[in-house]
Write a structure and sequence with these properties.
It is a single chain. With 306 residues, the protein is α/β, with parallel strands linked by helices. The protein folds into two domains: 87 residues, Orthogonal Bundle (Arc Repressor Mutant, subunit A), CATH 1.10.10; 211 residues, D-Maltodextrin-Binding Protein, domain 2 (3-Layer(aba) Sandwich), CATH 3.40.190.290. Helix content is 41%, strand content 20%. The chain is built from ten helices and ten strands. The strands form three sheets. Strands 4-3-5-10-6-9 form a six-stranded mixed beta sheet. Strands 1-2 form a two-stranded antiparallel sheet. A two-stranded parallel sheet has the order 7-8. A hairpin with a 2-residue loop joins β1 and β2.
Length: 306
């Protein structure tokens, strides 16, 4: 057996694992971003060092020898354990509490379904989550990161825009059965309405409906009636249950619309000028834990891997 540096053996065993998984030098090379010839050469050198063959070279394919199968059974779980330990150590380097404040509806609908991915990637970061509406002022020192819906202006603080928001009416398909068609704002008179009272701070409960109708040129339609709730996600759940038509935020109803639980009877949506933002103090991102959670949330919002 020839003398080889541990790093060379390690690298060649990685090539062996990829080749054994695919039973193809070409596909192993694609996985490892090296040429087919380089894969073949690394396997040949590993076989020479071991003193036995790992693969049978057959016309148009390869297969593992008995020795190759036994080596795979030993090496595969060993490398998996090493990779898992390294991942945990890297995540563990970022440990401790990060205080996150978020709007209840955004938290329940958008963030919570994504949090298991954050936990898996950074298991030693302990997220301390507080659900609070926008009517509680954002004060430096109360949180490390806050998710708010506003125009992006936060005097004395920093912010990162996550998602632009737009609104439009939604309802359950079942609500429209045995009722007049709902194809224009004027036909809302035949339907019960639902209101999110927290949509516009300091405004009447029906403010979001009136803003939407004014924007599409239907300000004459009376929407000052119906059920009122102080949580957007509760309003949406009531709409799913068939209780009435409500104004939805696109960011918070993507899944319900895609699944057919809700439909949007009008084609027009309206930009509110509001956006979901991450808010933090000027020095907050100097803390690697806070910066890591910040970057992860931004990556989720923009569809990129942070």
């Amino acid at each position: 057996m020839q003398t080889e540096a541990p790093t060379q053996v390690h690298a060649r065993l990685r090539v062996f694992l990829a080749t054994a998984r695919h039973l193809s030098f070409t596909r192993a090379g694609e996985e490892l971003h090296i040429t087919t010839g380089a894969v073949s050469q690394q396997i040949k050198l590993l076989e020479e060092w071991l003193g036995f063959r790992l693969f049978r070279r057959l016309p148009r394919r390869i297969e593992l020898t008995d020795e190759g199968l036994r080596l795979l059974a030993a090496v595969d779980p060993a490398f998996a354990a090493v990779d898992l330990a390294i991942g945990r150590l890297r995540g563990g380097a970022l440990s401790g509490v990060v205080r996150l404040r978020a709007l209840p509806s955004f938290l329940a609908t958008w963030l919570v379904p994504r949090l298991p991915k954050l936990m898996q990637r950074y298991p030693a970061i302990e997220l301390q989550v507080e659900a609070e509406d926008s009517n509680r002022s954002l004060r430096d020192g109360d949180f490390d990161l806050a998710i708010d819906l506003n125009d992006g202006t936060y005097p004395g603080m920093q912010s990162t825009v996550l998602l632009e928001e737009e609104i439009f009416p939604v309802c359950s398909p079942a609500l429209m059965r045995d009722r007049p068609p709902l194809s224009s704002p004027e036909q809302l008179e035949h339907y019960p309405l639902l209101h999110d009272m927290t949509a516009w701070r300091g405004s009447p409960p029906y403010a979001e409906w009136e803003r939407y109708l004014k924007a599409i040129g239907a300000a004459h339609v009376n929407v000052r009636r119906g059920y009122m709730f102080n949580r957007n996600h509760i309003t949406i759940q009531c709409a799913i249950a068939g209780m009435g038509v409500t104004i939805a935020r696109r960011t918070l109803t993507t899944n319900e619309l895609a699944s057919g639980l809700l439909v949007a009877p009008f084609e027009k949506s309206v930009r509110t000028g509001k956006r979901y933002c991450l808010v933090y103090s000027a020095r907050a991102l100097d803390d690697r834990r806070v910066a890591t959670v910040h970057d992860w949330i931004v990556g989720e919002a923009r569809g990129t891997d942070p």
